[in-house]
Design goal:
By secondary structure, the protein is α/β, with parallel strands linked by helices. The chain has two domains: about 5-220, Spore Coat Polysaccharide Biosynthesis Protein SpsA, Chain A; about 235-325, no CATH class. It contains twelve helices and nine strands. The protein has helices at about 20-25, 50-60, 75-85, 105-110, 130-140, 145, 170-175, 190-200, 220-235, 245-265, 270-295, 300-325; strands at about 5-10, 35-40, 65-70, 90, 95-100, 120-125, 160, 170, 205-215. A five-stranded mixed sheet has the order 3-2-1-4-8. Helix 5 crosses helix 12 (about 300-325) and helix 10 packs across helix 11. The protein is globular. About 40% of the residues are buried.
Length: about 325
């Protein structure tokens, strides 16, 4: 017999997107009678609850439960949803995600075969809005120059990895390693996966398991997102310093190097030439990296937008990491 599955979704003020993920779950190839959806709502102030209620009334065949998340943070919502769920297998989703029809079936199959303790897939990254900068951000979000070896954003090769974005787990795993860490407002997936690996488990990334991910629509939202990623990454690294990856160390190191040469330049002019040379080379690399994408997409504005997006990601992540390191409270 196939195991029952609970899909857990933390959300807050998602009236425009919550029906998309619910429609995608209902359209799964996995038997609907074995599916349950548990939404942890962070006391939404828009029409999220009404949208969920409307979906429930229109589709009573899909079991759906809503629980309150008074802390209004993602890890707390995930924990509440997991504890309220009944499935043998837990699949984590976000309110902005749209899983492919075979997403759950493939995750369950891999778990049942014992391939790993956490199964995940690859993002199909799409623009948050139909604007040139949003399209550029979506391309940057899956660009190895921007995200390093974060394979779930671009790979076509199945492999064991250090993390996946939306995990699928057997329920008993949480009894073994604990729940999501509610002191982290980001990187909660990575932190949980670290505990899974340290307990002897494995994380499996299968590019046939796919999910649409909508990137941030503008540079301001992108900067806020990546500043948070950097900040909370440092908080996690205080507990797990051995998990630091080169892709995570480069942005703060580069930012500190630029700031240092600029500061020295106040007293020693040649340092300003070094600053200008390094920054100029960096921008040139970003520009060259964007040329083939611009040609492929036939969107000339991406020649400007992709470098701007990658710069925003690198600098914001680095600044957030540094802010966490020096003890600035977020």
């Amino acid at each position: 017999m196939l195991p029952s599955v609970s899909v857990v979704i933390p959300c807050r003020n998602e009236e425009k997107t919550i029906h998309l993920v619910l429609d995608a779950i209902r359209a799964q190839s996995y038997p609907i009678e074995l599916l349950q959806v548990v939404i942890a709502d962070g006391l939404s102030e828009d029409r999220t609850r009404q949208e969920i209620a409307a979906f429930t009334n229109a589709h009573p065949d899909l079991g759906l439960l809503v629980v309150d998340n008074p802390k209004r943070i993602i890890p707390a919502g995930l924990n509440l949803a997991i504890k309220a769920s009944k499935g043998d297998i837990i699949v984590r989703m976000d309110a902005h995600s749209i899983p492919n029809p075979d997403y759950i079936a493939r995750c369950v199959d891999a778990l049942e075969k014992g391939i790993a303790q956490n199964i995940g897939g690859v993002w199909d990254i799409q623009a948050g809005t139909d604007s040139w900068i949003a399209r550029s951000i979506a391309e940057a979000a899956g660009n190895p120059l921007a995200v390093g070896d974060a394979h779930y954003r671009f790979t076509d090769k199945a492999d064991y990895v250090d993390t996946v974005p939306y995990g699928a787990y057997k329920r008993e795993l949480f009894e073994q390693v604990g729940f999501f860490d509610e002191t982290l407002l980001a990187n909660e997936d990575y932190e949980l996966n670290t505990r899974v690996i340290q307990s002897g488990g494995k994380i499996w990334l299968d590019p046939q398991i796919r999910c649409v991910y909508y990137a941030r629509p503008n540079l301001r939202a992108l900067s806020k997102q990546y500043f948070g990623y950097g900040y909370w990454k440092f908080q996690m690294l205080k507990r797990y310093p051995e998990t630091l990856r080169w892709r995570q160390a480069l942005p703060p190191a580069f930012l500190l190097g630029l700031a240092g040469t600029l500061l020295v330049g106040i007293f020693w002019k040649p340092s300003l030439y070094l600053f200008a040379g390094v920054l100029g080379l960096y921008l040139l690399i970003l520009l060259i990296n964007s040329i083939h994408i611009t040609i492929k997409k036939r969107d000339i504005l991406m020649l400007i937008g992709i470098p701007l997006a990658i710069l925003t990601m690198h600098f914001s992540w680095g600044a957030g990491f540094i802010a966490g390191a020096v003890g600035i409270k977020k």
